[in-house]
Amino acid sequence: MRLLLLFFVLLLPACSSSSDIRETRFIMGTLVEFTIAGSDHKQADQALKEAAAEMQRIENLFTIYGNADNAVKAFNASQPGTTVKLPAEVANLLSISLDVERQSQQAFNPSLGKLNLLWGFSGETAPDHPPPAAIINAARPPRQCIRRQDNNWIRTDARCMLDFGAIAKGYAIDRGIAILRKHGIQNAIINAGGDIRIIGSHDGKPWRIGLRHPRNKGEVLGTLSLVGDISIVTSGDYERYFDYKGKRYHHILNPQTGFPATASQSATVLAQEATLADAWSTALFVRGESGLPIMSQLGYAALTVDRQGRIHMNKAMKDIFNPSR
Ligand code: AMP
Ligand code: MG
Prior knowledge:
There is one protein chain. The protein has 325 residues and is an alpha+beta fold. It has two domains: 207 residues, ApbE-like domains (T-fold, Roll), CATH 3.10.520; 88 residues, Orthogonal Bundle (T-fold). The chain contains nine helices and 17 strands. Strand 15 and strand 16 form a beta hairpin. Helix 6 packs antiparallel against helix 7. The longest helix has 22 residues. The chain starts with a strand and ends with a strand. The structure holds adenosine monophosphate (AMP) and magnesium ion (MG). The site of magnesium ion has 7 residues, from helix 7.
């Protein structure tokens, strides 16, 4: 999904170590890099294999693309107004998504599936022009169109289709880290196309993460040196986009308009769980600078780059961010 952050362990000689165990897999449409430090090969190999399989399972469970059936696609095809039972994991991620929708004042919206399919950024062929405005308007779901009834779920309208594209990768990373830990791994990074969770340290030193510059390829805005258990997720308008008549169209939509959100070039959120960092980086991208106080209230370090390229950070981010210049 997002090639937002440059993961520096591979790039900075000071941070790499011959004892690191690395493996790369293609999951969720992106290269997922696993790095394990300070473990023996046999233990790490088995852990990596199982973590990758678990992340693939999450992709299959949540994707609305491809030909295989899953519960999310079944919900999206259900008769509006009828109750649908969702697997516990899907219901759980949906509940978290609806919380973020409420807390972000509707910047985040898990029911934009129909609109996202229409724009086609995650489809087989990349789009090169926007759909007609009338068709976008007709695909916009009404507000709060997903309801819970006891343990079942209802979509109230045919325009309302689930899409976990803004949160499922974070959840997959969290599940991958849980599997590594189950195998006794204490120091590791999972980097899924720039969405990162780290645990432990790197040969007793912090892991060093570069935050990608949203416009200058190969440049970073700055770096973060981190230890412990933390996720760093960025949403950016440079991940999937096309230019049409001098304007950039990208994959993160403003639910109010049905068109790509215009407040930001990128937004980065640090939270312990990648699930939350992923959901909130998308929400913060849509909100722009005005979303930073919400991040502070929730205790997350966060940064946005506005449409003019200016950087805005909350205090928690200022305390840890090392700017490039
Ligand atoms: P991310 O790259 O994590 O910011 O997620 C972007 C993906 O989430 C898109 O490809 C869509 O599938 C979906 N999406 C787009 N706009 C929104 C939004 N405002 N709220 C929730 N999901 C969205
Ligand atoms: Mg996201």
